[in-house]
């Protein structure tokens, strides 16, 4: 049986939540949760793998809602080590997305630390 994304396992098996319940708890849309679970898992063939624009903020909100990380401020290395849902590659992709978006923001608005708020 193909593996699901680890977000699915944490949400469904560990927390017993539906996508809608997790969406309400994390203030993330159900379509974003579905997209992460369906299109980024290790079972998706490379030719069908979709690139996503998941932000680090989205990952933090989901993990905080699932209780995988406690609210607080994290350096990037501490965040990667504190959770086991998103792979290093996914975090790297999220960093690239954030960096591209930060280029469009006014100077001085860069973020050096990640903040998960309950």
Would you summarize the structure shown here?
The chain has 118 residues and is mostly helical.
Give a verbal description of the structure:
- This protein has 118 residues and is mainly α.
- The chain is 52% helix and 5% strand.
- The chain is built from six helices and two strands.
- Strands 1-2 form a two-stranded antiparallel sheet.
- The mean pLDDT is 77.
Main sheet strand line-up: 1-2
Which class of secondary structure composition applies to the elements?
mainly alpha
Shape: globular
N-to-C span: 35 Å
Main sheet makeup? 2 strands, antiparallel
Helical percent range? Answer: 40-55%
Radius of gyration: 14 Å
Helices and strands, in N-to-C order? HHHHEHHE
Defining traits:
single chain; 118 residues; mainly alpha; two-stranded antiparallel ribbon; 6 helices; 52% helix
Set out the fold topology:
Elements: H1 6-14, H2 19-26, H3 30-39, H4 56-66, E1 72-74, H5 76-82, H6 88-103, E2 114-116
Antiparallel strand pairs: 1-2
Helix pairs in contact: 2-4
